[in-house]
């Protein structure tokens, strides 16, 4: 993977308090897992940046190596990899996702 893709991923992760690497966009998710991640974040009411990995093959492969996680979507909070769709769902249902945002000082509605 290119150093350029890694640098762009690192910059995105480190300059956005919450960022979701996903297939598609929040308005038009291109897979069910990305759609579920968007629904959870929107329900909590947290502001987040999104990166459509389908628009850039370097980012699509690079994010998997960056996090050492094989699937997309991937959520980062304050530069830290949180997880994919299943982990987000488990954390949301347990109340841990809202708690994580509160601990990190991320505003939300829920």
UniProtKB/TrEMBL annotation:
<dbReference type="Pfam" id="PF00462">
    <property type="entry name" value="Glutaredoxin"/>
</dbReference>
<comment type="similarity">
    <text>Belongs to the glutaredoxin family. Monothiol subfamily.</text>
</comment>
<feature type="domain" description="Glutaredoxin">
    <location>
        <begin position="18"/>
        <end position="82"/>
    </location>
</feature>
<protein>
    <recommendedName>
        <fullName>Glutaredoxin</fullName>
    </recommendedName>
</protein>
<keyword id="KW-0411">Iron-sulfur</keyword>
<keyword id="KW-0676">Redox-active center</keyword>
<keyword id="KW-0408">Iron</keyword>
<keyword id="KW-0001">2Fe-2S</keyword>
<keyword id="KW-0479">Metal-binding</keyword>
<dbReference type="InterPro" id="IPR033658">
    <property type="entry name" value="GRX_PICOT-like"/>
</dbReference>
<dbReference type="InterPro" id="IPR004480">
    <property type="entry name" value="Monothiol_GRX-rel"/>
</dbReference>
<dbReference type="InterPro" id="IPR014434">
    <property type="entry name" value="Monothiol_GRX"/>
</dbReference>
<dbReference type="InterPro" id="IPR002109">
    <property type="entry name" value="Glutaredoxin"/>
</dbReference>
